[in-house]
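Hi everyone,

Forwarding the result from last night's run.
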Amino acid sequence: MDTKTKDGDENATPLIIASRNGNLDCVKILLSFEADIEARGTVKANTDEAVEDCSPSWVAAATGHVVKLLIDHKEEVNGRNATNSTPLRVAAYDGRLDIVSYVVENGADVNSRDEFESTPLMITCYKGHMDVASYLILHGANHHLKDNNGDTCLHYAEEKGHIEVVGRLLSLGVKEEQNHKCLTPLLVASSELNLSHDKESQSADLEEQELDELYFDIATGKLRARREGNVDLQRP
């Protein structure tokens, strides 16, 4: 049972559609009729862009009960779509520690890379999911890897001002290294501050208390003190 249903840009099997919608009962019925668990399809992601070569577990990675059922039925836990993204990456992006831990315990590659050479750890640092980042590191995620732009997970965390994640990475010895554009994580975060300030200054002066904590530290020179151990990274 792998007949695909086309709807606009989407072209997916009933199992993929049911998995994406989190319909556990429907998934169970389809599996009982031996639906092809490895059949791939094209679905729309959150950005409304079509993503090709998606597996049922990839589209279900944000709905824990369904992805667990699919993996229990022996779907490939490291299956990739057209962009080399895995179910682990999707769960890490969404901050779903329950799914992250389940797929890792079932053999997911914590250092898998997508088409841009970024890892699940990098994307969860970008999103600021401290619990997921800590879990991945504890289970072997390499926090020194770089993507195809030369960015480390520290670049990803600092770009969005996730100070708790930054502190964790610094405590593990992640260095302030330049990427291929000669930008350190600090410079990346500084550029984000400048962009934010430009937007705000069009209507009003940007006040210090409105800045994200990390960006304020950059603007006042306190971030370097944090790195030298003079300021508690966990302090508000």
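The chain has two domains: 1-109, 112-188.

Cheers,
N.
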